[in-house]
């Protein structure tokens, strides 16, 4: 079959109307077209380049080794030859013939103007003209512009069809195009995982196809100190990705991993490969934070937080410069990145001096400019030099508008849209929750607004009005980032590609088009990326193999056509391949141990004590098959695909009892990973243990291994490889789930009439106190804090405070809140129901003069003796029902409002710093709404308890109150209830959070990581007891008044608030503060501690997502 027929078949499968170019092609600006169309199959296989243009190279880019136009043309010749399996030639010519009679592809100079969106001229623009049915002209404003035009032409060739489609351009078609922004970049974290030079080169090739211009190579870092099971900080993984050659003493920063570095020749080869495709490598060496690679070598240079450098030590800055002096000559770029983020705020002056010193030294030493991460270092004396480029990544760390006003060049890497955390997000904690796959919905629907397509001037998803002007002179562009916060063993190298795959295409397209260009068609993005990616030249990141059906989509689906790609039996010749990527089904039979190896990994059946075990080996780490239940392994968690929480039913023990002969089936896709059936029975999967952020929530995560096909040894007797996932016994065509959207809806609601006014007032007061706690000033509905402009509007006569979703928070779906409600409801109703006898005794001591002065035991005996033991259960019905509703609302509301108040804080760092204010505001607001539901049932309960014979139970008591007193009777104690329940909730949640934080800070992250289930429950219990004491003390005065009011005490002609103050005066401080306090503390400690323990267990049982945690444990 010819290449033309192959592309035609592929186009027929996906539909020509289901594709678009990435970036989209501008419309023709020519008034003249004909019915004839350009046909690449009928075009002469020659590329002609104008000699006067061939030696041109760009000087306005960042690379110091800019290719000439002829170099780019040579790359294009190689690409089109490989793509079409044809031998294309390249010729220099002195002028072009009459295009109407010409055949071939012509490259030359574009004589028009090409500008970025800010008006600055660029050599990256190009003109594309269809000059005849067999000729095309591409003219570049510079060498790179011509090259970008060839990327467009390659996409047109792939989509060109005799039946029409986007690749079928009429003769006379002419368009001009230029990028809106110079920086169109992607970052890969190579400081927490090793990546081979070949993989990095393939990634550059892939990104170049979508007109990306920069590869931000984050080459040094360390695993987070507050995660993992390391017994000491010196055992924590750190990495430096370059191999020192001149100053060999610097090899000490490699810590024995010289084999996981790039030599100078390796790095030069990488830079040359990338720049040959228009991509400049921007290296980053981190300091003064994320420096464990350095402090493990020289511990004396560290602060108490061991990955931070002590900048006042006389050897610190000379050592950092010594490292840079080794590598600056390697870096063929006009700009380098020195990191400089997440340092101690209290050492702001030291930080600013360091950054400025490094910038000036680098510039003087190498004539290079410096980039840093946006960092909030509140120095009152010093400022960052204006020549330094600031890469904004998070609100609370920098304000992009202020960065521009301060005179810096600016790059948009706002984590809300730009960041991914390879393999596993940080849920449920701050400072970040980043998805494991790029969240394309945040580019297509920025700030969660349908149809708002992001472009690099869009920074703020929280306040839609606070964006940078698209034409801002110093706005460079944008860079997305993939981070390895989960460590080197949590993913394979190719899984970084899966994380970035769509993000590179989308970010490249939107950064190229900007505000002025053509927007993407959201319905065509997925099919277009899937269509192009296997055929992009100079890479095979999808790991396609010979015989792969071109009509199959490589990732995210499966084909019903099960014609094997490879079918082999013992005795037949083994035809070596490389690897087969997503998705695949591999069926093996073996009569003994064997190994399959490839360029990316190996798979082995190895002898074990009880039989055999199956093991993948990748990047130097072994991943044995582990026992996982069918449900856990095959049913995806929609919020965390591939993640199995540690409290699930699976054992995750290594499977070591495989006997031979054996039939093994492995199915693999990106989300579910590599699943295994042994002799037709589901056995488990290959997975990795992931320590959640700050050791808060642990999980097992999927490993998606490619199939190794290069070499076979041992007892393998047959191998069948199919494209797509085919579950044994379930037939073909099983669909594979896509990476989930991170969007989530929000719900709104509130009580009617006067309660709305009270609610608005309470929330206004609570929010004002919360904002004042943050050090913010409310003025004319604007909240201003130094360089931050976070506007918070108070909506008149409504209950809601609007705040946009934060990238660092879990995106809870309505189903999550239902689970929170269910767990909270069960926790509250079980504890309060069980405490009914205690509550009866406590209430009678408070309101019955005959029982004043009695202790709990004597009062209980008195009630039982006079009224019978059943009297101790009086009010059980309204208690159980009331706290079922109130508990569910309170716990779910706390999760909701804590998340909202964190968003209002402006970012994760501020949320951690001001967590007490968040706890206070969230607990008070949640309790208010819960009390609206609780009040009628609480009034009924207290009436039943305090007035003997009032009714026989909940139903009759509720009916009597409704009949005799109406709605006013149910809510007569609403204000006192608020005075009781809001302090109760504040004590319960805020003190519990503080106690948990204190315990974990005391024992340290290493001990926390090894806590057993019983020990973790003990932490919840102990913290709950402390919180119970606080809740009892804070709420006791109002509890006493509420009991009296519901019994009918006070002047009934007055309102509830007036009666409350009247009774307070009558009772006096001693009775309010102390009467019944002992029994109440006893009861409340049990209630609060029990609720937190049960809530945690119930959340696990119903599969609820972890809540938001903003503890500070260091």
TrEMBL record:
Residues 181-489 form the Glycoside hydrolase family 20 catalytic domain. Its main location: membrane. It catalyses: Hydrolysis of terminal non-reducing N-acetyl-D-hexosamine residues in N-acetyl-beta-D-hexosaminides. One of its GO terms (molecular function) is beta-N-acetylhexosaminidase activity. The active site is at residue 342. It is a multi-pass membrane protein. Residues 730-749 are annotated as: Disordered. Belongs to the glycosyl hydrolase 20 family. This is beta-N-acetylhexosaminidase. It comes from Pyricularia oryzae (Rice blast fungus).
